């Protein structure tokens, strides 16, 4: 019997919906993805307070206001980490093997996993935006579509990076170790905690090459009217880099899922 390929859209939508349902059924993941960044924002933002002020910033809301866009990206990052853990879990349970031997194309499988993480990241980020007025940060209603579009691009790229790493690992503990080694430093050196203008030359070079920097910059520019530091990437540049980053990680995810079949036992 010859199986007919269902195309990309159906398996992608099915897998994405499955990941969304699984995530919201596990309350510990919801708490971990949302509460941890919220705690960082409150503790770090309140601790530094008015002792930090970026150049050109009116400091109407202090460091809490500056730190808010970076924390929003951190919410997306944490959600991406939790969502891509399912790749390892699905391999252990045998679900991933069944999916990969089905007629569904690998691109559809990968797209479904990435879309699931993206939906979760954007939904968690939208929830975090509700506390924005505490820091004096709340976009106008007309800006919400642009804010959500930026979050989609950022979440898609980070989920893709998590997928590439998770696909190559069999241990959840090893996955967390790699995440702490890769994703967290990417966020720390993205302008979330401090602007490039106050850093040394080699740190500024790393921040300029860091794709997460442009996600944070895009979020910052869509949430507020400024004024912004002179070294903050423009919105057009930030969106272009974030889109290219997401496309590159999707291509890498498809390539690794197509090539490394031995890791999933098929």
Notes on the structure:
The protein is mainly alpha-helical and 266 residues long. It has one domain (9-261). 71% of the residues lie in helices and 0% in strands. It contains ten helices and no strands. The protein has helices at residues 9-25, 27-48, 62-93, 95-100, 106-128, 144-167, 172-188, 201-209, 211-223, 235-259. The protein is globular and about 55 Å long.
Summarize the structure.
Helices cover 71% and strands 0% of the residues. With 266 residues, the chain is mostly helical. The two termini are 20 Å apart.
Q: From the alpha-carbon coordinates, what is the Rg to the nearest angstrom? A: 19 Å
Pattern of helices and strands:
HHHHHHHHHH
Query: Shape from CA axes?
Result: globular
| Count of individual domains | 1
Number of DSSP helical runs: 10
Multimeric state:
single chain
Describe the sheet with the most strands. none
Distance between the termini: 20 Å
Low-confidence stretches: 261-266
Q: How many DSSP E strands? A: 0
């Amino acid at each position: 019997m010859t199986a007919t390929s269902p195309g990309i859209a159906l398996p992608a939508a099915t897998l994405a919906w499955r990941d969304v349902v699984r995530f919201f059924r596990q309350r510990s993941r919801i708490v971990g993805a949302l509460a941890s960044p919220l705690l960082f924002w409150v503790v770090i933002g309140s601790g530094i307070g008015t002792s930090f002020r970026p150049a050109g910033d009116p400091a109407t809301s202090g460091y809490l206001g500056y730190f808010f866009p970076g924390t929003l990206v951190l919410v997306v990052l944490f959600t991406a980490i939790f969502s891509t853990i399912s790749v390892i879990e699905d391999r252990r349970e045998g679900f991933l093997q069944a999916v990969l031997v089905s007629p569904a194309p690998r691109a559809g499988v990968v797209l479904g996993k990435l879309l699931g993480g993206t939906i979760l990241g954007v939904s968690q980020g939208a929830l975090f935006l509700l506390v924005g007025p505490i820091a004096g940060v709340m976009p106008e209603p007309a800006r919400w579509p642009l804010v959500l579009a930026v979050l989609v691009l950022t979440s898609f790229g980070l989920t893709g990076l998590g997928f590439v790493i998770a696909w190559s690992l069999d241990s959840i503990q090893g996955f967390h170790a790699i995440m702490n080694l890769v994703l967290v430093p990417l966020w720390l050196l993205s302008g979330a905690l401090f602007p490039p203008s106050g850093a040394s030359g080699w740190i500024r070079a790393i921040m300029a090459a860091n794709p997460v920097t442009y996600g944070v910059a895009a979020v910052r520019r869509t949430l507020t009217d400024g004024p912004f530091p002179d070294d903050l990437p423009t919105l057009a540049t930030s969106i272009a880099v974030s889109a290219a980053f997401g496309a590159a990680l999707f291509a890498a995810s498809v390539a690794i899922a197509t090539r490394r079949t031995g890791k999933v036992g098929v």
